[in-house]
Structures are given as C-alpha cells and as structure tokens.
Amino acid sequence: MSFSFPFLNQVEEILNNYQISIVTIPRIDDHHPESEGESENSSEESISASNIIQQAELTEVSNVSTSNNVLYRIQFNETDISNINSIENLQGPPLYDFHNIDVFRSRSISLTIEVISKFCYSVLSGETLRKDGALNYMDALSKKLEAWIINYSTDLPSDFSLVVFNFFNTVKYCLKRNYDLIDFVIVNYSKDRFDNYFVLDKRDNDFINGLDNNVKNALKIFDVVDTLSMKDLFLKIDRSDFTDIRDLLEVVKHLGSLYPDITDVIRLKANFLLYKWHKRYTKDISSEDDFKLRIGVEVTSFKNHIKESNVFEAWNTKIERHYILEDDKKKYLQFAKATINKEKDLSNLKFYEFHTLIKYYKDILPSEEKLKSILDYLLQLDTESWSKYDQYCIEVIKDYAVNNYFSLCTQNKNLSIESCDILYEKCCGYLSGVSLNYFLQFKYLRFILDKIEKEVTEESNNDKLLQKSAHYYKLIENKYSKVLDEYYEKKNWAYDKNNYIFLLTSEESLIKINNPECELDSFIVFTSFVLPYNKNEIELNYSKTRQKFREVKSQLKIINTLRNDLNKLDSLNKEFDRKESRNMEIIGLFTAIITFILSSIPAFKFVDNIYQAILFTLSIASSLGLFVLIIFSFTRGARKVFIEERNWILFLVVCFLAIITYFSLINFENRSVKGIISAEIKNKEEAKVIDSLKRFSLYEEMQDSNSAKQVEDKGNIIDSSKDLKKK
Fold first, then answer.
1. Where is the composition biased (Basic and acidic residues) (predicted)?
2. In 488-558, at which residue ranges do the beta strands (DSSP E only) sit?
3. Residue 512: in which H helix or E strand, if any?
C-alpha cells in the first residue's frame, strides 16, 4: 500500500515486524506431535530455529534506533516465514528468542504503547485529512489483523496467545476509533458529505479489562485525543461542552507524567477550545467578561482555568478583532493593514487573509466592487489537487464570500425587490451545495419583508395600495413562504451538523510547536479561530424573521379583505370631492354672472354705438370663460380639465374671443385717441369762447360797479353840501 501517512505507516511497519517475529514462539505442535514422523520433523525444525536464534544472537546489532527494534531486528515477506530453515535465509538484523513468555509479554506491552502513541500523533497531526485514502488504508490494516488472528488462534500456547491477542485487539481498537473519526469528518466535512448516515457498529471494549495498566493508561490518552478532536468539530456554547473539556484535562493531569509529549499538545488544544468557548459565551450569553466557578468549596474565576499560549497569538488577535471588537473600525484597520497591502495579487493570499479582507470590505470600508472581485477569484479556483476535506473547506470559504457579498448588497436602500430577487437567484447559483447554507434565506427574507412593509405603509393611493397588496400577498403565498420553509430546514440542519460558516484548510489549521521531545512539529485545530455556534442567537434570528413574515402577511391579508370597503370608501370620497367641486363651480358661475351684470350696467354709459356694445360684451364673455376654466383647473385638476371635449371647445372659444377682443380693442383704442384729440381741440375752442365771455361779463360788472360808485360819490357830495348849508 503506497499511502503517505507518516504515523500510520509506522504503525504498519510495527505490525509487519511483530507478525514476523511470532515465528520464534514455540507452537503447540512442538510439544504434542501426533505421529513419530511429525515429531521428528518438528524436532528438526525446532533445532533448526534454535540454531538460527543462537547464530543471530552472536551477530546481534547493539545499536537500536527505534522502539520497533526492541522486539525485532528483521523484515521480510510473511510468505517466507515457513521457509526459514537455516541462518542463510535471514537478511538484516537478527530476531530475539521469545521462548520466554515474560520477555515476550514485556516487549509486546512496550510495542503496544508505541503503536498507541503513533495513533495519537496521527490524529493530532491531522495527516489523514491532508491526503485522501486514509479509510482504505486503515481498512486494509484491519483486514490484515483479522487474518493474523485467525492464523494464530490455534497453534500458539495459551499464555503466548493471550499476549498476541491483546496486542492485536488493542491495535484493532485504535484503528476502529481512528477510522470512526475520519469517517465522521469525511461524511460531514468533505466533498463526499452525506446527510442520512448512521453507524451501527459496536465497539468491543471487554478486552481492555485484561490489559496491562500501562496499556490502559495509554488507551485513556488515546481516548482523550479522539474525544477532544470530536469536541473541536462539535464545539457548542452549551455549558456541558465546557465541563466535558475540563474533564478531559483532569484525565490528562493524572497521566501527564507518563506521556508528556502527547499530554502537552492536548493541554494546548483543550485550553484554546476553552478560550473560544469563553469568548462566545461572554459575547452572546453573559453580560460580564468573566464568571465564577465552584470546585468543591473553592470558588475561582473562569479565567484561572484557561491557560493561554503564545502559539495561538495570531488566532487570539483575530478573534478579538473579528468578534469582540467588531465595531472598532480603527483597530481592525490596523489589524488588516498588512493583508490590504498584499491585495493587489490575490493569488498570494492565504485563506486566512481572505477572511480578513472580506470582513474589511463588508463592515469596515463597504465596497461591493471589492467583494465581487474577491468572490470572482474564489469561484474560479481549481481544487482538484486538494484533498476532499480541503475541497470542502474551500467551498465553505466561497460560500462565506457569497454570503457577505449578498448581505452588503441588501444594505443598499435603492435596491428594489425585483433586483433583489435577481441577485438572490444569482447568489444561490454561486453556492457550492456542500452544506445547507441558510444565511442567504435569512438576509433575503429580512430585506424583502422590510421593503414590502415600507412600500405598503407609505402608499397613499388606495388603488395602488390594493394592487400592491394583492401582488405581494401572492408572492408571499407562492414564493416567500417556501423560502421561509427552506430557511427553517437549513437552520436546523446547520445546527445539528455544526455547519461552520468558515473553515481553514488542513494546512492552515496547523499550529506549529517547538518540542524536541515530541515527534510532532504541529497539531491541527479543525475550527481554527472560528467561534462556536450560539443556538439561542440562531433561533432568535429565525423567530424574528418568522414573526415579521406573519405580520406582513396579515397586513396584506387585511388590506385585501377590506378591498370592497376600501372601494366603497374611495367612491364616497370621490363623490364627496365631486360634489364639493360642483358646488365650487356653481358658486364660480354665479359669481361670474353677477360680475358680468354688475360690470356691464355701469359700463354701458360709455358705449356710443352698437359696435362698441358688441366689443364690450365679447371682452366680458372671454374674461368670464377664462375665469370658469381657472375654477375647473382648481376643482378637477389641470390635466383633467382638458380630458373632456367640451372643455376644449370652451377653451378654443375663449381664445377666439380673446383674439377678436384684442384686435378690436386696438382698433377701438386708435379711434378713441383720435376722438380724444378732436374733443380736446373742440374743448380748447370752447374754453376760449367761455373765457372771452367771462372776461366780457367781468368787464361789464366792473363798469357797473364804477357807475355805482360815481353815483354814491355824488350822493355823498350832495349830503355834505346840505350839511354845510345848514351850518
């Protein structure tokens, strides 16, 4: 089998050499020959094997490099085991003599622990996710073990057989646990994902009770590694997850001194999962940054139970900027500055950096154009050369870009419902389908429902209101209700399957460590910096959307139900407006008639002839017609006035009268000027005559006054003369 899984390959190597070394164990037939001939042959074979061992011990190589060489010193094809007759058949380091059961048991226990440690390294390193074929590889190893168990089930002594079977059963147990883990990952987090998948196998753990205590402790460590990996994939905000991880750390605490290289990695990973759990819990559930825990009678702070490590510094910063301080744009800009500088060539970016850019252009500096360019680049990525797990992660990253692009577009207030429908269908087409992504349904329904509610509320025209309500009600019944059902199904699926909205590839999910005593140079955290789901938040968002859906639907239904009443009300309003308009028109007409009469009577005294009378009547009539049209434009609207033909006729007549009146007035004005001029001349002559007469009469009056004065003077003279005579 040519599979590149370093630690699993080492397990296979150990198994092959262990199986080969069993040849030195004495068989039952060696002590209980059935015939003399068989006894002689058996004796000869035993002597031959003894000679082989003796010769091998003389040439034993003392330089041992790995624990494999503790039990064996040779590798060759298992088909050649029965053909070993002499020392000349051996190639390579010699075998040990396992006639002694105590030596064989001790070596088997050491080798069993070595195999378990390799399985621990395999799971922690995530080697089975970086390349496909792990399940087939482990299945082949399991079948090989089954064949060996059958072969050695009858011809080994009972005490040797027990040791061999304990070794094989332990390896089978580890293979089964590892197989189940990888199978779970592939079924739920790969391109071969399958929804309705059930595992009905039962684990046979009864043999564990008969194992050596050291082997039992090693299996406990392996169980912790396996369980912690499942917690990584299924981490939730439930308090039980916190207690479960704490229990795993307690197990490691008691066994850490036995396997420090493995338990150190377990502590790093477990504490980081607790850190993520705490960040999600304090952000979405608790109003406090910390909370208290009681262990026995001791009450301590939660933070005292989390030991942060520098190996997660980059991810811790990412969590703080993306989740905790998501509204602090200035700090996020500083955090994303290095990634923004590399944006010119998207091919140089890691998926971790794509996540940073998407967040930046969605929330910090919104740009539909930038998000669309990132989305287009991710959609055209070729993932054929990646493993199925990595292909799944890349498809999830693409879906994440689609979600954020659609979310940003729906924030555009000018986006219409029709445009949103087209955009929604297009984005649904972008989705890979590897997971049931409910985010698009959530954002789509929220935008649509808000838009419908706003349009219905702001519409003042009853006819348009009825049309819109009927149209939108049909859409809700036939289209949007199905989207809501789809939202419900995908929401439930996503939570049950722990469908993360973002997952780094296996290579980018590795955390480097520097521990010379550990064979691992890195370990995997499947969910990387992504915080666990908050079920309450998911349910709350769905409940709000469903409630809004019901409210809008009820509002539209009420409007449609009141259609007849609204039509009657609208007709009554129109009738009322019509009567009011008629009243105004009647009043206007009477006002025009009265004005015509009142203005005509006094004005006729200035009319000298029949032509002037006709002209005067036409001018008054055109003025009244224009007055009536103005009244109609106010009561019926300027556009409605000219809908009827009679109003056009009236308008044309008024215009005709106005034109005739205009030219007549000009002619009248010209003649009037001449008349005025002649009248003025005549008046001047008459004035002269009158002035002459006035002067003549004044002269006569002066003459009369002078004569009277003379008479008076004469009288005075006579009176004065009489007085003198008397004296």
1. 710-727
2. 510-512, 522-524
3. strand 510-512
Token pair in block for residue 161: 């057989």
Taking the C-alpha atoms of residue 274 and residue 551, their distance in angstroms, rounded to an integer, is 41
Separation between Cα atoms, residue 182 and residue 187, nearest integer Å: 9
The string of pLDDT tens digits covering residues 656-675 is 766 766 666 666 555 555 55
The strand pair at 510-512 and 522-524 is best described as antiparallel
- Say how far apart CA 597 and CA 228 lie, in whole Å: 105
Cα–Cα distance, 48 to 706 (Å, whole number): 198
The answer to whether the beta carbons of residues 235 and 241 sit under 8 Å apart is: yes
Nearest-CA neighbor of 125 among 53, 43, 238, 229? 229
Q: What's the CA gap between 595 and 137, in Å, rounded?
A: 110
**Tell me, what's the pLDDT at 726?**
57
| Helix or strand (DSSP H, E) at 72 | none
Rounded CA separation 465/476 (Å) = 16
Q: How confident is the model at residue 643 (pLDDT cuts 50, 70, 90)?
A: low
Share of the chain residues as helix, strand and coil, in percent rounded to the nearest 5: 75, 0, 25
Q: Cα–Cα–Cα angle for 376, 377, 383, nearest 5°? A: 115
Q: Alpha carbon of 297 to those of 249, 293, 300: distances in Å?
A: 20, 10, 10
The answer for residues whose C-beta is within 8 angstroms of residue 220's C-beta and 6 or more apart is: 251, 255
How far apart are alpha carbons 504 and 354 in whole angstroms?
A: 10
Q: Residue 449 corresponds to which amino acid?
A: L
pLDDT in tens, 411-467: 998 999 999 999 999 999 999 888 888 999 999 999 999 999 999 888 877 778 888
pLDDT tens readout for residues 331-352: 888 888 889 988 888 999 999 9
Structural contact between residues 116 and 219, judged by C-beta atoms closer than 8 angstroms? yes
State how far the Cα of 232 lies from the Cα of 227, in Å rounded to an integer: 9
Rounded CA separation 361/286 (Å): 29
- Crossing angle of the two packed helices 260-284 and 213-233, in degrees rounded to 10: 30
- The string of DSSP letters for 291-306 reads -EEEETTEEEEGGGG-
Query: Strand ranges (DSSP E) for 90-175?
Result: none
Place of tokens 């025209």: 461
Using CA atoms, how far apart are residues 583 and 68, in angstroms rounded to an integer?
A: 112
CA gap 586, 589 in Å, rounded: 5
Amino acid, single-letter form, for residue 100? N
Distance between CA 229 and CA 66 in Å, rounded? 28
- For residue 129, the one-letter residue type is L
Q: What is the DSSP string of 581-617?
A: HHHHHHHHHHHHHHHHHHHHHHHGGG--SHHHHHHHH
**One-letter amino acid identity for 367?**
S
CA 570 to chain CA mean position, Å: 44
Going by their DSSP bridges, the two strands 298-301 and 292-295 should be labelled as antiparallel
Count the neighbouring beta carbons within 10 Å of the beta carbon of residue 601. 9
Measured distance CA(60)–CA(62) in Å, rounded: 6
